[in-house]
């Protein structure tokens, strides 16, 4: 998706989100948009606000800002979240890709400096392996590319279920529950039912419950786990 298309789609979704707000919630939204001067907000029709928000905050920043404001108002219900969550998830994916690219570039550069071979060593290794120098060094990066980007989130969770139960800490399980409740994918009763279990049973109940909730809930769990514990996420091949 091009940047222009992404921005256009976001403005359309944002307009729909604002239409779902009652007057008092809309007033709170304007109050929280402190980057926009009050004089600019005054007198603006509701349909003019999306363009103003994107203009002042930028596309990506405005998505994060609206996500925060919807939690404060609060509007965590399905009507609003169904419109908002796809853009929040796309934004997280973009940021993760940017971070991974920077990290890999940094690691590659520092590794090259630390492991600079003595003169003739690289040629000898290439000769011993029977491969040209460039062909040999190209293997590493290609192996680092995830092979299952197109796999649905629920299937990813099913594939890693056993290792998830074994490796995810109790503290992180509780944080995952909090995040799912915060975004309206589970209710208080479901959260308490899972939270009271011992660690292994808690992990099994959590991952099965989230898979039943569908792709958005599954994606949120995966993204949150990647933020909480990159080491475990890499072992599970979620990163």
TrEMBL record:
Coiled coil: none annotated. It holds the Pfam family CARD. Residues 92-148 are annotated as: Disordered. GO terms for biological process: regulation of apoptotic process. This is CARD domain-containing protein. It comes from Perca flavescens. Residues 153-230 form the CARD domain. Residues 101-110 have a biased composition (Polar residues).
